[in-house]
Description:
By secondary structure, the chain is mostly helical. The chain is built from 13 helices and no strands.
Amino acid sequence: xxxxxxxxxxxxxxxxxxxxxxxxxxxxxxxxxxxxxxxxxxxxxxxxxxxxxxxxxxxxxxxxxxxxxxxxxxxxxxxxxxxxxxxxxxxxxxxxxxxxxxxxxxxxxxxxxxxxxxxxxxxxxxxxxxxxxxxxxxxxxxxxxxxxxxxxxxxxxxxxxxxxxxxxxxxxxxxxxxxxxxxxxxxxxxxxxxxxxxxxxxxxxxxxxxxxxxxxxxxxxxxxxxxxxxxxxxxxxxxxxxxxxxxxxxxxxxxxxxxxxxxxxxxxxxxxxxxxxxxxxxxxxxxxxxxxxxxxxxxxxxxx
Length: 304
């Protein structure tokens, strides 16, 4: 009679996939870190992202002016010692605005990625774990959401909910969670029938504990990669909405509304469009490099 309990206990004692040593006594995350360190492009991208985040956080210290300061006597000035990147159409210091815009754009990107990842993990894990009618309902909702035209709905919602960071994050997250939900569902479907899940259930673990302790942590690798790519996509979406005049509203700067303000001066003062355009390009490119490196590092089928 004691044999089934002993069998369950021994199975429960076995480490789950992330806890098992993939090789030479190393954990999954240690091996992934070693793989990531060999990906030079991803390391460069991560270093640039880290530098930009630090600069954005320290914008209040680095910037020579406040972002709302206006000097109408110094409109469209070229770069100088007083204004490192010159001034814009109403006398804002472009360098200052660029720093504060980076803070706003990065905040939107990271916040949207966190919200989308959370919603996607909840929906995907619930659908994959319970299956049946629950899976059908949640996945059909996801399919309907995927069938909707994103851009028109984003424009409509931004018209009424935009203007603030919170509103833009909500609008972007409304569509960004779908890919995460599908990824997590697939991972949970693979994991729920494995021995460590059956052992935990046999020992009396609740569904919530099985999900939070065993299944979700083992499904985090693709979520991390997806979230990294969502950051870049969210920054691009925010820039597009702000460029159309329905995103972050002045006087709060973002790279998107800096581009909008520069469009009428693209021939006479092209630098006003070049600076935020280069920053958007650089950030999105580096996040894509970072996501590519994380994908390679977190793929257990790859070897060093």
